[in-house]
């Protein structure tokens, strides 16, 4: 069983209800086991983090990065977060929002290759 911070549960629900355009676009292509019949979940709490997309079967986490992730502080936070998730045995795949919006097929191919 993976530890999760129950205090983040409401925030995760709020994030699901207020998804970015990139998150909506990717979700429409990976939900309902559309990729290799593999289940994905959105905005899941893992530890003290909320991950954008989570596939328990393949132990993959997909993160979509907006502008704040490309600042020096954002990069430091992402490295710390990725390190924690990697220690739990997850592989973190990161894509920019622009990648998803401009090249969804390429993003899906990368995800497919990791499943």
TrEMBL record:
Superkingdom, taxonomy of origin: Bacteria
InterPro entries, sorted: DUF559 (IPR007569), Endonuclease_DUF559_bact (IPR047216), Restrct_endonuc-II-like (IPR011335)
Signal peptide start-end: none
Domain named DUF559: residues: 8-114
Family matches, as Pfam families: DUF559
SUPFAM superfamilies named among the record's database cross-references: Restriction endonuclease-like
Record-given protein name: DUF559 domain-containing protein
Biological source species: candidate division LCP-89 bacterium B3_LCP
Lineage: Bacteria, Pseudomonadati, Bacteria division LCP-89
């Amino acid at each position: 069983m993976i530890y999760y911070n129950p205090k983040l549960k409401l925030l995760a629900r709020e994030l699901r209800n207020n998804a970015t355009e990139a998150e909506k676009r990717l979700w429409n292509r990976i939900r309902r086991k559309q990729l290799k019949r593999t289940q994905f979940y959105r905005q899941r709490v893992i530890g003290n983090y909320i991950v954008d997309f989570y596939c328990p079967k393949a132990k993959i986490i997909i993160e979509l990065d907006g502008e704040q992730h490309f600042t020096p502080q954002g990069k430091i936070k992402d490295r710390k977060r990725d390190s924690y998730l990697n220690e739990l045995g997850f592989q973190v795949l990161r894509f920019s929002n622009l990648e998803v919006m401009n090249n969804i097929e390429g993003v899906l191919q990368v995800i497919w290759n990791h499943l």
